[in-house]
């Protein structure tokens, strides 16, 4: 039987792709090392991912709304539709958390970008780098109301943990500016690879590793496009499909190996030992690439304004090369590979989790 004094923590990541789940892995591991009993409330897909990396965690099925992103004008209206639905999703989340925790006691609740995942009588923390929104260009007038809505939702939490630096080098740029909030903690980069120190292995050498991520159908579009661009280019290529339900399932097409997902050590080796990475420009992916000091080409998800902003910011800083999805072709990629792809700066990744009590 568990001691009555043992601390319990409940976590829940947003289910837009895998990024929000992968970046809480170091948080979960640190909590476990400090004696917390960890429960993660999520869907089947993310539950499989977290269970693989954090086998001591208790995984429970929980309401996890998803978003589909399509290209062009449709994607803009999909995004606007989601923003309109956000208050209602937040209310539903909050009610479901109350139902989930009825008769249960937790010391701490941690949400990753889920604004309704909190309780007033339990210390509640949210992890987010999005302290403001970037609306599509035709809807710039939504910037101020969006900023106010985000500020209001975040102010409901006891603490906001921002995976970024608060200083002259801010990875997320304007996204992680304080927005007038006084409950912020800037915790530095969060990466599942923060503690990886294994030496390189020749078993995991690739010329190019492509990492698919994000909502459907754009994740599948990315896989299809990158496969067409890499096939027959004379390079040894790996495509990680980002599907936790296809763990270690492997398929070979010419010079390309496609794998559903790898465990943490294999993923580390695949990225670390690749000459080049091709990926979306999600913030969690960018943090992983910075953690591993890896050269990369970023392809932002069309219509996802945050990714478009981050990709342009990384390109402007000279840390990564950015290419729009509509520009990518086999010929374009081959020409790009003949040039020197910049390497990002090295960050002194101190143990960012010391603040967890």
How do the helices and strands line up, and which of them pair or pack?
Elements: E1 8-13, H1 19-22, H2 25-33, E2 37-42, H3 44-53, E3 58-61, H4 73-100, E4 108-112, E5 123-127, H5 143-155, E6 159-162, E7 184-186, E8 206-211, H6 218-230, E9 237-240, E10 250-253, E11 256-259, H7 264-272, E12 274-279, H8 283-291, E13 296-298, H9 305-317, E14 321-322, H10 330-337
Parallel strand pairs: 1-2, 1-4, 2-3, 4-5, 5-6, 6-7, 8-9, 8-12, 9-11, 12-13, 13-14
Antiparallel strand pairs: 10-11
Mind explaining what this structure looks like?
This protein has 357 residues and is of the alpha/beta class. The protein has two domains: 8-186, 3-Layer(aba) Sandwich (Rossmann fold), CATH 3.40.50; 202-337, 3-Layer(aba) Sandwich (Rossmann fold). It has ten helices and 14 strands. The chain has helices at 19-22, 25-33, 44-53, 73-100, 143-155, 218-230, 264-272, 283-291, 305-317, 330-337, and strands at 8-13, 37-42, 58-61, 108-112, 123-127, 159-162, 184-186, 206-211, 237-240, 250-253, 256-259, 274-279, 296-298, 321-322. A seven-stranded parallel β-sheet has the order 3-2-1-4-5-6-7, covered by helices on one side. The longest helix is centred in the first third of the chain and has 28 residues, at 73-100. It is globular, with a radius of gyration of 20 Å.
Structural key phrases:
Rossmann fold; 357 residues; seven-stranded parallel beta sheet
Q: Report Rg.
A: 20 Å
Which strand order spans the largest sheet, edge to edge or round the barrel?
3-2-1-4-5-6-7
Euclidean distance between termini CA atoms: 23 Å
The CATH H-level homologous superfamily of the largest domain: Glycogen Phosphorylase B
Instruction: Choose one word for the global shape.
Output: globular
Biggest beta-sheet profile = 7 strands, parallel
Mean pLDDT: 85
The number of helical runs is 10
CATH topology of the largest domain: Rossmann fold
Number of domains: 2
Count of extended strands: 14
Helix content: 25-40%
Q: What structural class results from the helix and strand content?
A: alpha/beta
Which regions have little confidence, pLDDT < 50, spanning 5+ residues?
A: none
What is the CATH top level name of the largest domain? Alpha Beta
Q: What's the CATH architecture of the largest domain?
A: 3-Layer(aba) Sandwich
* SSE pattern, N- to C-terminal: EHHEHEHEEHEEEHEEEHEHEHEH
Q: What's the multimeric state?
A: single chain
Strand content: 15-25%
């Amino acid at each position: 039987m568990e001691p009555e004094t043992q601390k319990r923590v409940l976590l829940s990541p947003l289910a837009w792709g895998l990024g929000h789940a992968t970046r809480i892995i170091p948080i979960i591991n640190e909590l476990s090392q400090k004696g917390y009993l960890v429960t993660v409330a999520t869907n089947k897909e993310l539950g499989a991912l977290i269970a693989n990396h954090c086998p001591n965690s208790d995984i429970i099925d929980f309401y996890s709304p998803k978003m589909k992103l399509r290209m062009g004008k449709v994607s803009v209206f999909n995004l606007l539709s989601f923003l309109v639905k956000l208050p209602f999703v937040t209310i539903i989340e909050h009610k479901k958390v109350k139902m989930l925790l009825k008769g249960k006691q937790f010391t701490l609740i941690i949400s990753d970008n889920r604004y309704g995942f909190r309780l007033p009588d339990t210390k509640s923390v949210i992890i987010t780098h999005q302290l403001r929104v970037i609306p599509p260009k035709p809807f710039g007038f939504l910037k101020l109301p969006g900023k106010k809505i985000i500020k209001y939702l975040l102010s409901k939490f006891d603490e906001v943990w921002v995976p970024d630096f608060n200083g002259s080098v801010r990875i997320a740029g304007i996204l992680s500016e304080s927005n007038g909030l006084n409950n912020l903690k800037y915790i530095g980069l969060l990466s599942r690879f923060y503690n990886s120190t294994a030496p390189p292995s020749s078993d995991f050498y690739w010329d190019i590793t492509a990492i698919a991520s994000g909502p459907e159908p754009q994740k599948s579009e990315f896989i299809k496009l990158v496969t067409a661009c890499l096939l027959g280019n004379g390079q040894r290529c790996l495509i990680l499909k980002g599907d936790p339900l296809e763990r270690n399932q492997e398929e070979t097409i010419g010079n390309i190996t496609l794998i559903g997902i790898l465990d943490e050590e294999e993923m580390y080796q695949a990225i670390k030992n690749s000459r080049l990475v091709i990926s979306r420009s999600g913030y969690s992916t960018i943090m992983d690439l910075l953690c591993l000091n890896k050269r990369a080409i970023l392809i932002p998800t069309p219509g996802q304004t945050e990714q478009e902003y981050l990709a342009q910011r990384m390109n402007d800083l000279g840390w990564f090369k950015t290419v729009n999805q509509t520009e990518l072709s086999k010929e374009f990629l081959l020409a790009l590979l003949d040039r020197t792809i910049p390497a990002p700066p090295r960050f002194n990744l101190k143990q960012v989790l010391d603040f967890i009590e």
